[in-house]
Amino acid sequence: MVARLRVIKRFRWRDQLLIPFIRVISLHSYYLLGTMCMYMFHLLLISMFITSAAFATTWTVDDDGKADFSNIQAAVDAAIDGDEIVVMPGTYIGIGNYVVNMNGKEVLLRSKEGPQTTIISGQNQRSVFYCGNNETTSTIISGFTITQGQSTQSQGGGILCIVSSPRVENCRIVNNFAFQGGGLASLGSSPEMGEIIDCVFKNNEAYFGGAIFCDMGNFWVTDCLVRDNVANNIGGIYVYCCSVVLQNTAVCSNANGQTYGTLENDDCLISETCESCGDINGDNVVNVGDLLVVIKTWNTSDIDGDVTLDGIVDVEDLLFIVSAWGNDCSPPQTGACCIGFEEPWCEVLTEVECNSMGWYMGDGTNCNPSPCF
Ligand SMILES: [Ca+2]
Ligand SMILES: [Ca+2]
After folding, report:
1. How far is the CA of 321 from the centre of ligand 1 (A)?
2. What pLDDT shows up at residue 211?
3. pLDDT band at 265, cuts 50/70/90?
4. 227, 275, 266, 228: which is closest to 248 by C-alpha?
5. C-beta separation of 92 from 119 below 8 A
6. Distance CA 232, CA 48 (A)
7. Cα 325 to averaged position of ligand 1 atoms, centre (Å)
8. pTM greater than 0.90
9. Any residues with CB less than 8 A from the CB of 350 and at least 6 apart, and which?
10. Closest ligand relative to 300 C-alpha
């Protein structure tokens, strides 16, 4: 009995050791099982990603024939939503009413080496780009010079958007012509805002809206330069009835008016002349901070570093900063200006603005209460 008891005791003793051990093992099993499930889940995600990536194709276009296509339209026609089309340097032309009809494709159409070397020409016979199939900002046109577009439909020489809102970025839209919107026309309201970003509109011509004409369209214009465009009515941006928001954009030196119509303006230069004091980093003085911005944006069309506002950040911008070194670029002081004799009214103006029409009451004075009587 004693021996048996000892055996039982030994077993019990072992059980007491084994039970926690088994618990630990089973906990580990759960942990291992969980880890394996996570691992399988990750594998599933990766395989799903690879499968979806496998569907997205990158097409190449080169005008001398070493790529999938030699013209851009053929690549757009072949592409499906999610594809990317990379265009090699060269000059591209087309047939019909447009060089490239985006056909509603949600693709990234981009140049490999930027707008300086990748040119799309309408040959003064057709618009360059057409977006008229409900394009959204998932249709992206990036890095081209868009030139010699001439609309066969009166509107949009460079780019014609009808009830569509693509994203156009890093493009030079130059020397295009139309009756309305030499550079770009946006017609008809689409559900979302289009985006025009980092673009230069220069030397475009029209009767209304040399650079841009907008009728019921809506889009953002961000970090763009709009200069030296010509029209009988508003060489710059003509907005007939839509929502256009300008952000950090310069609209200057355009013939017969810079802007017209409903535009929101956030931190923009809108002026008859493209003149800068030299302060580009916004601290009101020309100093090393401005120099650093020029260096950071070197050889791009980034408007933040383009102090000469000619569409390129280069040695001229560097020289301009050096020549303007130390300039005080603080905004001019304003004050109350009393206008008229018998019942003078009050407006807050700069001293220069006031002197041509009334009596300046001093820097920092205001019209509430009116100092005019
Ligand atoms: Ca500065
Ligand atoms: Ca420049």
Report:
1. 9
2. 98
3. confident
4. 266
5. yes
6. 56
7. 9
8. no
9. 332, 333, 334
10. 2
